[in-house]
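New to this. Please check this protein:
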Amino acid sequence: MLLDVNEIQRIIPHRYPFLLVDAVLELEPGKRIVGIKNVTINEPFFAGHFPGAPVMPGVLIIEAMAQVGAILVLKDLPDRDKKLLYFAGIDQVRFRQPVVPGNQLKLIVEILKLRPRYGKLKGEAYVGETLVAEAEVLSSIVDRA
């Protein structure tokens, strides 16, 4: 493991129950990152999505991709404590298979384009070797208030 949850929290501002990254396994600065999200029945969203047939909401899979991407973008910024990444758009989204308690999401994110105030990332989510979701995430890099 390259980064544990404590190191992740030093890079991005997300906290429980909205921190959706448990570890980073690989990191190529400015290029690519691989993160892990362990999906457990204790997740608060499973209480209502769906009782008796729990499925991780697709928007949270995309959010997990975005958080992994934010780690990649912010990790080596010298003034990262003064920056936030906001969603600016989501393109080419596909959900291919449900994600359920007991699954481990492997989130692979690569930078397609990075400018000082804008980023375009491609994310893929896998359970085992099966691609379960993919998207292009557009991010706005802003100064914290």
Q: What stands out?
A: The mean pLDDT is 96. Strands lie at 23-28, 32-38, 83-95, 104-115, 118-127, 130-143. The domain at 5-143 is CATH 3.10.129.10 (Thiol Ester Dehydrase; Chain A).
